[in-house]
Amino acid sequence: MLGVGGTALTVKPSGAYLSETAFSTGGGFSHLYARPAYQDGVPGISQARGVPDVAADADQPGPPTVETGGSIVTNLGTSNSTPLWGGLIALADQYAHHDLGFVNPAIYRIARSSSYHRAFHDITTGSNDATAGSVLVTGYRAGPGWDPVTGWGSPNAQVLIPLLARGR
Questions:
Q1: What pairing do the DSSP bridges indicate for beta strands 4-11 and 17-23?
Q2: Number of helices and strands in the chain (H, E)
């Protein structure tokens, strides 16, 4: 499973990418699952599965969805960023002319290669701190490379899709 975190995206008036910061959507280390092999050697990851793997814009209301019972809602958070990654992987499947299957190892290979800063926007600011009532719950901070708030960061789809389709 691909773990997806969230960001707050800032764009220029033209719509061009400007910057992103971590959006409070969770993240951290599993108490149940050991670190998978594709996370071996990634700085900041312990012996446990670290999540998220990647991130995307989560701070803007998404398109309306109809829930069971007929109510219409708009979502924030990973309810927006996760489908964005689903669509990106579907485009990579189409580009490759076959189902890519489990993409996590390929994402980690790309992120650990010289293509990282072209294929991903490395999110280095913000945290997943949250409030529970009036109590601040301190989380993790975003930083260079993989972190337990935004993973490897958000996609530069124009670069990442062809790399995923080639498996590297």
A1: antiparallel
A2: 4, 11
CB 7 within 8 A of CB 56: yes
Whether residue 105 is contained in a domain is answered as no
Residue 50 covered by a domain: yes
Using CB atoms within 10 A of its CB, is residue 24 exposed (0-12), middle (13-18) or buried (19+)? buried
| Residue-wise pLDDT tens digits, 65-124 | 677 777 776 666 666 778 889 999 999 999 999 999 999 999 999 999 999 999 999 999
What span, in angstroms and rounded, lies between the C-alpha atoms of 144 and 141?
10
Output the CA–CA distances (angstroms, integers) from residue 104 to 63, 78, 133, 151, in the order listed: 27, 18, 35, 12
pTM of the full structure: 0.87
CA distances to 125, 146, 159, 161 from 79, rounded to whole Å, are 21, 21, 24, 21
The tokens describing 35, both together, are 């670190």
CA distances (Å), origin 78, targets 26, 34, 59: 9, 23, 9
For residue 121, the enclosing domain spans: 4-83+117-153
